[in-house]
Amino acid sequence: MAAEATTDGDVWEDRAPEDRAREDTSTVDDDPVEGTDAPRRSAARIVSALVVVALVAACAWLGHLVWSDHREDELRRSAAEDATRLVVQLASYDHADVDANIEAVVAESTPEFADRYREVSEGLRELLANGQGTSTGTVTHAGVQSVDTERAVVLVFLDQEITNVTVPEGRVDASRMVVTLVRGGNRWLLDSAELA
User: Fold this and answer.
1) Whether the Cβ atoms of residue 156 and residue 141 lie closer than 8 Å to each other
2) Is residue 5 part of a domain?
3) What is the end-to-end Cα distance of the chain in Å, rounded?
4) Total structural domains within the chain
5) What is the CATH number of the domain that holds 105?
6) Where do the H-state alpha helices sit in 132-174?
């Protein structure tokens, strides 16, 4: 096989394939020992898994916070609505059917409040009948002071339009009440109603 010599006469331009192969093996990169990529890949997988777990935990926590806020908003809304309805029921009566008024309030009260309310109402029954008293309650504003899954305190502004033999044309009494509700199953029950 013919080959041309370089100017110094030592190196050949064209070499046999075997010579080129030998020369190529001498210039192999200094890579780490074979198999060291496996621990790196394992470490990368572990880090990736930890990141995924952290993201899932963060999403779960944020979801819980959103659910809690929604739950509290729903409790506030229902407490304000139920306090409004219960106070209207409490402040409305008709001398012609006092028993119906009493039973309507008692049906949505805690046992303790129901007992107190019956006791007070018995004393008023004759007075309402003799005075031909009627009352219609209207709540103008209601705001939740505090709420949790068991109890709510609601501030209520009440207008009560009253008629009786003394004021047959009627008059409006305005009052503020602090209403305490307790949870009874899926509804709020009246536990106390005090003038503020």
Assistant:
1) yes
2) no
3) 117
4) 1
5) 3.10.450.50
6) none
Q: Counting Cβ atoms within 10 Å, is residue 153 exposed (0-12), middle (13-18) or buried (19+)?
A: middle
Tell me whether residue 83 is in a domain. Answer: yes
Task: Answer for the pair 192, 180: CB distance below 8 angstroms, yes or no.
Answer: yes
pTM exceeding the 0.70 threshold for the entire prediction: no
Other Cβ atoms within 10 Å of 79 Cβ, number: 23
Q: Look at the block and give the residue holding tokens 């890949």.
A: 41
Sign of torsion over alpha carbons 79, 81, 85, 88: positive
**Two tokens, residue 93:** 């009566």
The predicted-structure confidence for 110-156, as pLDDT tens digits, reads as follows 999 999 999 998 888 888 888 999 999 999 999 999 999 999 999 99
Instruction: Give yes or no for a contact between 86 and 131, defined as CB atoms under 8 angstroms apart.
Output: no
Tokens found for residue 128: 């309402």
Each residue's pLDDT tens digit, 172-184:
999 999 999 999 8
